Give the backbone structure.
Amino acid sequence: MENLTKQILDWEIHLLVLISFGLQLFLFFTGGLRRHGSNRVLRLSIWIGYLGADMVAVYALGYLSRHDGATHGSFFWAPFLIIHLGGQDTITAFAMEDNNLWLRHLLNLVVQVALSIYVFWKSIDKHSSELLISGILLFVAGSVKYGERIWSLKSGSFESLKSSAGNHYKRRLPEAIHANGCYSDAPWTSLQSMIDVFHIFSARPGERYMRQQGAMQPKKLLKVLEIQLGMMYDDLYTKAHVLRTKSGIILRGISQICLVVAFILFLTTDRQNYRRANIVITFSLFAGSFFLEACAAFIFMMSPWTLAWLEARKHEKLARFSWFLFTIGWPEKRPLWSNVVGQCNLFGWLEGQDISRSCNQLVRNMITQLVTLVGVKKDKVFSMRMVMFGTEYIKADKVTVS
């Protein structure tokens, strides 16, 4: 038993780094699935992964700063953990409330960067200059990635939505527009009315939007609405808004260049004095980072914004490639949303009865009855119930959509 405990302690930082990277992979490939479905198990898994990713990375950085023995070779993983804290392009926030916590993430960036500098400082005399320079470049890439996440959170906060008045849409809206009436027209139509969609989400009047959409054919209107909701989801919960800006593209280029140069320097470093397991894990982290960056580039290329930008500037080959990716990520025949609508059974609540008898409903009713017995008013119970359990989801038929 003692040997097992010792082995776990010896491999603790290795496991932490691998778990942190595994969570990043999970979040990248599942972060966008919420747009297409409302499965409670999936949402719970993403929520656990979203919270756990930051916790594991922060704990691993703390471990590296406390254990001198772990910093030989493994100190190089500190900037990778900063990259992991920067999150993935497909999910920066799990809920709207997360966007309002961007100042907390800014403080966390300062603290974790200081912690990483401390880890580097303890190892500065133990490693070659090539390895240290490679680590510094990774550190820059991680800081940029975390900065992108904070920028995205701030842009998606409700205060930013109210104050911006959709200016980022006005500045980047392509001038050209199709008029062929087929599916290739849908991205352009969606983009042209995104300013009004933004106004609706920021609690501004959208009468002009309703007049414009009312003239469309129902089938095309539904597809346009799906694309618009998808783009609004990307702006609120992903890094899409940041990557549409010139500054965001420059920062992404800097982080990618730093990552490539750091890998080249790592290849030229004499690694004979380092544990084989450390080298294998480091190569895995590099390979995983390149893989995620490549996948993120494909997602960027399939964006309606990228497609419209390329077509407006007559980059025909790139536009065709972007359209090909767009038809994969935003297919015409597959629904681009969950096809369910969240609602509260207000009449059932007022009458004190629920139509559904699922386990979730039974637990909800038990808690409602308990808090009512202790004297909590009914309106307070209703608010608490909505916060704790959210809304019910029903299948959206044609009547509901209309």
